[in-house]
Amino acid sequence: MSDPTAPLSFRADEIDRAALDQLAAVLDLQAARPGIRRLREWSLAALHVQPGESALDLGSGTGSETRALAAAVTPSGRAIGLDPNPGMALLARERTEEEGSTAQFVIGDAYSLPFPDDRLDVVRCERVFQHLSEPDRAAAEVARVLRPGGRGVIVDSDWGTAIMHPGDPEILQRIMDVMLSHTANPHSGRLLPGQLTSAGLVVEDIGTEALIQDPGDVTGPLVQMMTAAAIAAGAITEAQSAELLDQLNAAARSGDFHMSVTMFAYLVRKP
What is the pTM for the complete model shown? Predict the structure, then answer.
């Protein structure tokens, strides 16, 4: 079992299987959020995936959306999920076998996609670019593997839009500053259009939703990660963290709790 009080990393390539199980539980909870469901539905509809096509889910995580792509391309096509962590790829394969899906999974990273030029019809990527120190390289790889006329949807958060309420504004800002400093590309949501365009792709549509945390998440892994990181960085004290958590818990009980970050989805096409 992983330590429930330890800060949770969202970098799947940096954590072991025990921590992956914890991360998978968080991803499962997030997948049930209305904002995530709506944006994923928008993305799949925008991609207009057809039977027989080849599709890549870049940063496939638990594999849920790779399986959705597999259902869309049917057994006559191919849906591949790519993740940098072998443990996460194994977890996705286990779930896929249980569901009887034709989705396949490989290990790799966004900087060197294991596909020839102009090979794929569809690329889907969700909440990966925020973790990349060289997002332009990844955008160029997406453009490289898409065939002419191929489509992609790149989804990412912009942590500059994050809201946590209630709490002392100064303490909340310190926590967010640490969160931003620990994220390689925290403003990915607003930067993606320029990066994708520079890679030679055409942005054809934009979708957006807020990932709104449930009041029950006040003591969950995401809040733990943020406050623990702020304490470790010396930005806040343990006493300030405890006071904030008390305020958030009281707000959750009274209906005055809000925590969210805005996500953006960009539909692109290769000319």
Answer: 0.90
Tens digits of residue pLDDT in 187-201: 999 999 999 999 999
- Check if the beta carbon of residue 165 is closer than 8 Å to that of residue 258: yes
Q: Does 139 reside within a domain?
A: yes
Q: Residue-wise over 75-108: b if at least 16 C-beta within 10 A, else e?
A: eebbbbbbbbbebbbebbbebbeeeebbbbbeee
Instruction: Say if 29 falls within a structural domain.
Output: yes
d(CA 265, CA 75): 27
What CATH number does the domain containing 112 carry?
Answer: 3.40.50.150
State the total domains in the chain. 1
Cα-based distances in Å from 78 to 62, 83, 95, 98, 200: 18, 17, 18, 18, 25
